[in-house]
Design goal:
The chain contains no helices and 8 strands. It has strands spanning 11-13, 41-46, 51-58, 61-64, 67-70, 81-92, 97-102, 108-114. The strands form 3 sheets. The chain has a 3-stranded antiparallel beta sheet, with no helix packed on it. Strands 2-7-8 form a 3-stranded antiparallel beta sheet, with no helix packed on it. It has a two-stranded antiparallel sheet with strand order 4-5. The chain is globular, with a radius of gyration of 15 Å.
């Protein structure tokens, strides 16, 4: 019964507990506004470091007036980060551009991997 309420599209993780390597720059994928539905988003990420890509981390920065609450992996917070796995890991090279799709419940898909040759 509890699995009916589990997160099925990403894993709540504490990034600081794992050895991982960030392969791209940080990108703002979506802005949320209370009470508005967030639709599927297609976005591009430029790879800055070669390696094997298993998915993407995401986190939030919530703005409350002058105060910001964040679960960024660079901030010590009690909030978990989110890891969105790809269906399978892919090898990427510096300069590649990945086109990804993020749906409104957090599923992540690789659409295209363009190699800059």
């Amino acid at each position: 019964v509890l699995n009916n309420y589990s997160t099925r599209t990403y894993f709540p993780v504490r990034a600081s507990l794992y050895r991982y390597s960030i392969l791209s720059s940080q990108e703002l994928v979506r802005k949320y506004q209370y009470g508005k539905l967030n639709l599927e988003k297609i976005f591009s990420i430029k790879i800055e470091k070669s390696g094997e890509c298993h998915g993407a981390f995401s986190w939030f920065n919530a703005h409350f007036g002058d105060n910001i609450i964040s679960n960024s992996p660079y901030v010590n917070s009690h909030w978990h980060n989110a890891f969105h796995p790809l269906n399978y890991p892919i090898s990427v090279s510096k300069g590649d551009v990945l086109q990804l799709r993020l749906d409104n419940v957090g599923r992540l898909w690789l659409i295209k991997n363009e190699r800059n040759i």
